[in-house]
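Subject — a protein and its fold

Tokens — whole-number codes for backbone shape
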Amino acid sequence: MWARRTLRSLSTVSTCRNVGRGHQYCCCGDNVMIDQRMSKLNAWGADARTKIAQQSKQSTATWKIINSHYSTYHHYAKCKMKK
């Protein structure tokens, strides 16, 4: 039983690593849907970065801690932090 679950889990992990644009497990392969979702995520990220920049300038605090529920891997990746 344990071995069966482990093998199933490993095959799922392998499949998930290969899922991307156009794949049946990525928005059912619907690239228009992906583009719409990514557009929305990018807009939220841009808005969050704009607000952070504005509020950081207004703040007189010595230390500034940013709490965000947006994905750090997406919105705050190095290439996007440079914006």
Q: What stands out?
A: The chain is about 60% helix and 0% strand. Residues 41-56+73-83 form one domain. Residues 31-58 form the longest helix (28 residues).
